[in-house]
Amino acid sequence: MTERIVLAYSGGLDTSVAIGWIGEATGAEVIAVAVDVGQGGESLETIRQRALGCGAVEAYVADARDEFANEYAMPTLKANALYQGHYPLVSAISRPVIVKHLVKAAREFGATTVAHGCTGKGNDQVRFEVGIQTLGPDLKCIAPVRDLALTRDKAIAFAEEKGLPIETTKKNPYSIDQNVWGRAVETGYLEDIWNAPTKDIYDYTATPEFPPAPDEVTISFQAGVPVAIDGVKVTPLQAIQELNRRAGAQGVGRIDVVEDRLVGIKSREIYEAPGAMALITAHKHLEDITIEREQARFKATVGQRWAELVYDGQWFSPLKRSLDAFIEDTQQYVSGDIRMVLHGGQAIVNGRRSETSLYDFDLATYDTGDTFDQSMARGFIELWGMSSKVASGRDLRVTGE
Ligand code: ARG
After folding, report:
1. Looking at ligand 1, which residue's alpha carbon is closest to its atom 9?
2. What is the distance in A from the centroid of ligand 1 to the CA of 238?
3. Alpha carbons 346 and 177: distance in angstroms, whole number
4. Half-sphere exposure of 341 (CA within 13 A, CB side)
5. Of 15, 292, 316, 337, which has the fewest Cβ atoms less than 10 A away?
């Protein structure tokens, strides 16, 4: 029987050419797998037809938008995950859901190998292959760009020679990856890290310098997950979409960073994640009133480690699973409403309320009715500073200063 390979297919030039390229290089039949994670653009049907037109023997297409929002974006929100303090893991969280579908398709169509269009320099190859190794240990991996010398120029020449139903003239200088959680742009002119991004780079966000009137929004959460916007019930996917639209119109969620890739390269990235950044901001502010201090401090460390693991392609790892259990436990009381104003590139919280809040007005107030006994503070401070005081006494004795 002819060997079969499932290919992660985007519908773009490189993966369209990869269908025939892999076929010629390996003699295998190629099955194209297209997964909708909210990247927008062409319909799954159009993409399926193109895959078949480019020589795929089968095309597997999946609308994974709710799955992605519920099982990948929501855990990221609960973790307030920002890699290196900036990046809400847009591409990093889409790879594991695509991997799930690749492995499922490989089983359905009896494939032995999984192929993807990544280069050998990025994080995405790692995320795909580590995920595939974990979910389908018997499956092999191949990356035509990296392993079969499929360069851009050769891809264009191949498409023209074979008359593939794909545009070869449209030149986009950037490498773009997008889904409902956000959008990543890299390469080209951005590789000079002193160059400011030009306007044409952005798609999810409008210029924050000339914003429309301020937009006040109330987001309701239930156990860490958004459940309503301005009182209207929403699914996680709808919450992200609605905030992409409203926060995007105000230029919220533009990120320009140089980040540390897993492969040891520092790289310039432009991200746009209006919905994700508005949601993370709101969620964090709700945690501020509903999570106890020590749990909150520890959770910040856990969230940072979680972001690193996910960035580094360890979505399916045991440590990530254990951290998920901790984070999930912290979300029990993260319920309530956050009111925020979206305007001029910023999402600023100006009100919060929760039935499960730890904010105690009577303890906090400086007005009459205060229930906090200030006389307890003196003794507390005396003991809190005791060990440093003892140590400084020793220092004075030994060094004379
Ligand atoms: N640097 C980001 C990451 O590693 C974005 C990668 C975007 N991928 C792409 N093919 N343009 O998560």
Report:
1. 177
2. 24
3. 24
4. 9
5. 292
- Helix 376-384 to helix 386-399 angle (10° resolution) is 40
d(CA 52, CA 82): 39
Structure tokens at 360: 């105690």
Index of the ligand 1 atom closest to the CA of residue 118: 10
- Tell me the per-residue pLDDT of 293-330, one tens digit each, with 9 for 90 and over: 999 999 999 999 999 999 999 999 999 999 999 999 99
Higher pLDDT, 63 or 174: 63
Catalytic residue flag (residue 175): yes
pLDDT band at 368 (very low <50, low <70, confident <90, very high): confident
pLDDT score recorded for residue 66? 98
Reference 120, options 146, 94, 96; nearest CA is 146
The residue from 43, 147, 175, 322 that is catalytic is: 175
Is residue 339 among the annotated active site residues? no
- In the predicted model, what is the mean pLDDT of residues 255-273? 98
Question: Which domains, and CATH codes, for the chain?
Answer: 4-172 (3.40.50.620), 176-291+334-353 (3.90.1260.10), 365-399 (1.20.5)
Token code pair at residue 71: 């099982």
Candidates 172, 176, 170; CA nearest to 270 is 176
**How many CA atoms lie within 13 Å of 208's alpha carbon, on the beta-carbon side?**
15
Characterize the bridge pairing of strands 140-142 and 4-8. Answer: unpaired
Whether this model's pTM surpasses 0.85: yes
Q: Is the CB of 312 under 6 A from ligand 1?
A: no
372 C-alpha to center of ligand 1: Å? 51
Tokens of 262: 């897993």
Ligand 1 atom closest to 311 (CA): 12
Which of 265, 272, 270 is closest to 126 using CA atoms? 265
Helices 90-109 + 293-311 axis angle, to 10: 60
CA distance 362 to 307: 37
Q: What would the pLDDT profile of 104-146 be if each residue is shown by its tens digit?
A: 999 999 999 999 999 999 999 999 999 999 999 999 999 999 9
Pairing mode, if any, of strands 29-36 and 4-8?
A: parallel
Reply yes or no on whether the pLDDT at 77 is more than 80.
yes
For the record, the structure tokens of 107 come out as 């089983």
